[in-house]
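Anyone else keep sequences and structure tokens together like this?

Example one:
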Amino acid sequence: MTKPPLTLYLAAPRGFCAGVDRAIKIVEMAIQKWGAPVFVRHEIVHNKFVVDRLKDQGAVFVEDLSDCPDDRPVIFSAHGVPKSVPEAAQARQMIFVDATCPLVSKVHIEAERHSEAGLQIIMIGHDGHPETIGTMGQLPIGEVLLVETVGDVALVDVRDPDKLAFVTQTTLSIDDTKDIVAALQARFPAIQGPHKEDICYATTNRQEAVKAMAPQIDALLVVGAPNSSNSRRLVEVGARNGCAYAQLVQRATDIDWRALDGISSIGITAGASAPEILVDEVIAALRDRFDVTVTEVETAKENIEFKVPRVLREPA
């Protein structure tokens, strides 16, 4: 039977960012250096495929430092941790490696710098997300206030409206964040912002690629995990920019084929913690059902690389 034709628009860049690549290397190198098991506080990145592969190599994932023995190394996830976590590890004389993405660490440093200048911080982020918890945990309770929406800005109770600064989670929607920042600046004209955009280059680039192809496609598939903030934002960006159907899929087996019935064009991208092997799997599943022609939509080139911590580059 003849397969129906399908134009597949493949977003570039997509998938792993430098911070995710570094975090995974940190776990792998720690296992090589110290042997298994190596403990990881929280999923190193939000992707089940990646986490399961590292489990097979000897990583043990836990949610709390109290779940780790004193005599085994522990790694802190790419999302960052409150300052109290490395302090507790140090008190227990544990070997620990911080895999926090350097761009998240930049936000931590900004928050501390503003606080030292006497400013209270407003963080734009998602309540309960590990990155938000980590950033707010850099300072004492009450020094960082969280807003998630434009509506929250009107309700936030600050200490002094003339002594404020804002920071943001690195994986937010660019457009939503602009609206929240505008609301903050309208209510608090003296509020200070970051010297350089907090939303990371990878989040920005992946959203821009989706915006570029959205008007050309009948449907969008985002390869990523449901607990991945940047992956979920890509679905939202696609829908907001004219995609009639946008779905988040972890694997090809998650594709809702009935929703794709009758389409002639589809876009594919992947969140920053999704490996390319899963994108290839989705493309192969589409080729099984369609006569696929691939067109790449490239909006940026990425060549950023972050070094792993020195302790992993030194001999055991």
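And example two:
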Amino acid sequence: MTVSCKPIVSLAALVVLSFTSASEASAATGHSLFHSRQLWATIDVCTPKDQPNTLGIRGSMPSDGFATDTMYMRFRLQYQNTATKQWIDDPAHGADSGFLTVGPASAARQNGLSFQLTPVPGKPAFTLRGVVSFQWRKGVHVVHSASRPTTAGHQSLAGADPAGFSAATCVIG
């Protein structure tokens, strides 16, 4: 695949969600983090008319119940090899944000990042997906981590274009 990619910060970088009950907050500790409905990744921008060749990834992560912990997300793009149908990271073109702080772990949070892609004229279109890695840290120590590929059917609280858009993959080119 030949593409150049430049990450751009989404217009709404951070949204804090509130819990509906104290029992939901306490249920978010330990292994239940990994089964939470608030742990997901989606493509919320896929080359709309007002943002051509832009792919936006959004992630959501639950609180771990410890307000002193800090939550982080890492956004990566992967392309699908047309011959093997395998998903392949493409860090050579800047398709990896590294870990970004999204805030204290006192409440569930969403964050997003958009990538500006430059398709090569004459080359076939390619299919992309996102992968979001999540970390909950106590100081410099990672206390929980998870990773999710993008899937459809999620509600981005900010940044989706068009509003309500949620997809597992995006075709560019």
